[in-house]
Structure formats: C-alpha cells, structure tokens
Amino acid sequence: MRARLLRGALLALIALGLMTLRVLWSSHGEWREAERCLAANDPPAAVDHFGRAARLYAPGSPWVERSLGRLEEIALGAEAHKDAPLALLAWRELRSSVLATRSFYTPHPALLERTNQHIARLMAQTEPPSVAPGAKLAARERWHAARLAQDDAPSVLWSVLALVGLMGWIGAAIGFLLRGIDNEARLRREAAIGWGLGILAGLGLFLIALGRA
Predict the structure, then answer these.
(1) Smaller CB count within 10 Å for the chain: N or C?
(2) For the whole model, what pTM was predicted?
(3) What confidence tens digit (pLDDT) does each residue in 182-205 have?
(4) Helix (H, G, I), strand (E, B) or coil at 82
C-alpha cells in the first residue's frame, strides 16, 4: 500500500514538472512571436502575444515579467505618439494579464494601479461627449478609475479555508488508506471511522468555503 502511494506521489510530481515545462515553453514561444511582430511593425499582434505569454504563468518564469514590461513600454510609447487606440489596447491587455494570474492575492499591485490610472484617463479623453454630457474631464476620469478599482477577487479568508479543507480531505483519505485498512484489505473499525469523519469534515469545509469565496 505504501509503495503504491509513493509511486503515485512520484508520478504526480513528474506530471507537475512536465506541465510546468510545457507552460514555460509555451510562454517563451509567445514571447518570441510577440518580438517578431514588433520587428514586423505590427504592435497590435505583439500586444496579443505578449498578453498570452504573461498569462502562461509558472513560478520563476522570466517571460511573464518581461511580457508585462513590454506591454507597458508599448502603451507608454503609444501615448507619447498620441495613439490612444493602441495605448488603450496595450493597457487593457496588461490589466487583463495581471488579473488573470491572481489567486488568493493579486500580483503586481503597483503596476495594476498605474495601469488603471492610464486607462481611466484615456477613457475619459476618448469617450464621446454624449456619454456624460456636461461632465468635466476630471470627473469622468474619476468615474472610470472608481469602476476599474472595484475588486471582484475571491475572499482571501475563505480561499485559505478552502485550501485547508482540501488538504484536510486529502490527508484524511491517505490516513484512511494507511491506517483504516489492514494488509489484508479489511477495515480497522475505530481507525476507519476516525479517518472517515476526517474526510467528511475536510470535504465539508472545502465545499462551504469554496461556495463563499
């Protein structure tokens, strides 16, 4: 039983490593394609590929940070050349990329705040007057900034509790297999009941917390 669990854990680690390598390889490929598009003077296509590279997140990946930096460079350059459509495209892609990789916390908070400010200003400057007739530019910018600042991220507390429930559920299941069943595949009554209750408690916490997160 223990040998089978160890083999299963080893296979899971190998699968995780292969998935990570696949993500890194794909992110690098999107980065290279984005640079090729820039060299071909096709900034919109480059924005799209940099966004994809940034979304393909893996711990320690250099392509995520570089792609976010390049998106900011494109956006600032477009603003300097008064190209509002391209600037908005790049800022929005940057914002989407940051939000797409958040979990129980939002990465790059300073970059996200800066991005929201640029989007709010550009939206206020480029929207047609009929959207908010009579409203001053600063008021329109504040309105957009407030909408962009709204955080729909999952609750950190409930997300953590969901992870605790998940780990408790898995740990109890492993305990049930190791301690609740003997070598002849017969139940050890007291141990099986204890670990079974642990499975139910972990699963219940996981489902409740996931629903509230």
Answers:
(1) N
(2) 0.67
(3) 777 777 888 888 888 988 998 888
(4) coil
